[in-house]
Amino acid sequence: MKTGTETVAAVETRGLLDAADRILRELIRTPRFKETVVILLNSIDPPSARRLVRTLFWQDPGLLLSIMGSLPALINVASEALAEVACQMKTMPPPLLQDFLDRVVAGIDGQSAGEAVGGLVSMALSLGVSEEGSGLRRSLAAVGSDFGRAYAEAAGGAALSERLGAWMAGAAERARDPESALHGFVQAAARAVRENPSFVENVLKPILEPVLGAPAKSKASAGRSSAKKAGGEE
Question: Taking the complete model, does pTM exceed 0.85, yes or no?
């Protein structure tokens, strides 16, 4: 028998998506519904998305504010859904999964995705996220902490290390091509690093020092010790 706390928790989690799930369980059994869904999916027109956003922004500010207020819930819904999609897709045979993902990636508009990410990054930088007292910076740090912990658990340490090694090797190869997007990104990152010495001191240095700094320090210390001994002998 369920306890009162469990019952209350179950009631509290029931909302729009719970209702959609229960309705879909019934509708998905009907061929007519599935045909309608396929027709609707085939009618999606990505270029019209920009016009839809402009309509939401400028036609009804009240509705826009309501949507903006719901963004955290919408992002959380997308995250929960993608996490479950990843879990379910792991059960698929690797060749089938690879073929499926190949078709998915091939259909993505890289130019629009790049423009969207670049615009969001530019917007975030203009909001003073790097400032110490920024509330947005604290919120991002909290989200990043939870993200990193959950990511490490889901990806697996050893497997993640192998994949990162393979990715780094491929990235290094692509970065050599002056015409590649990665080469342009690396050059832009290099310029940004040169213009932000504080970032190098407080972020990059602590990350890279265990790998690059310690040996260098050891060699420098050894060199000074040798010099002192030589001086003493003289």
Answer: no
Q: Tell me whether residue 210 is in a domain.
A: yes
| Tokens read off for 169 | 């090797």
State pLDDT tens for residues 172-190.
888 888 888 778 888 888 8
Cα dihedral sign for 19, 25, 30, 36?
A: positive
The mean pLDDT value of the chain amounts to 78
- Give yes or no for residue 219 having a pLDDT over 50: no
Does one domain contain both 229 and 218? yes
The answer to the question of residue 152 being in a domain is yes
Residues 6+ apart with CB under 8 A from 77: 17
Domain count of the chain? 3
Alpha-carbon gap, residue 75 to 35, rounded angstroms: 29
Which residue type sits at 230? A
Q: Give the tens place of pLDDT for each residue, 49-102.
A: 999 999 988 888 888 889 889 999 999 999 999 999 989 998 989 889 899 889
Task: Give the structural domain span for 3.
Answer: 1-41
Residue 71 domain-assigned (yes or no): no
Query: In this structure, what are the phi and psi dihedrals at residue 14, rounded to the nearest 5 degrees?
Result: -85, 125
